[in-house]
Amino acid sequence: xxxxxxxxxxxxxxxxxxxxxxxxxxxxxxxxxxxxxxxxxxxxxxxxxxxxxxxxxxxxxxxxxxxxxxxxxxxxxxxxxxxxxxxxxxxx
Length: 92
Fold this sequence. Notes:
Elements: H1 14-31, E1 40-42, H2 43-51, H3 55-64, E2 71-74, E3 77-81, H4 82-91
Antiparallel strand pairs: 1-3, 2-3
Helix pairs in contact: 2-3
């Protein structure tokens, strides 16, 4: 579509405006790389689910510091990046 940049929006037809919006949104979404959503678990129970172990063992794993790079903790809230935790598990 060839629309003069000086054309007022009020002078466009509905079809031209819709086409213009589609073109600009398609160009914007095409330039952004698609990000894979992170696989997250929460709390000691999340650690127990990741490693298929008891809560006591999950507490020991967290206390050992072996998966600290996969854990983000703010106060009492624990967030675990599952993929990173499994990578770190392979090392111990």
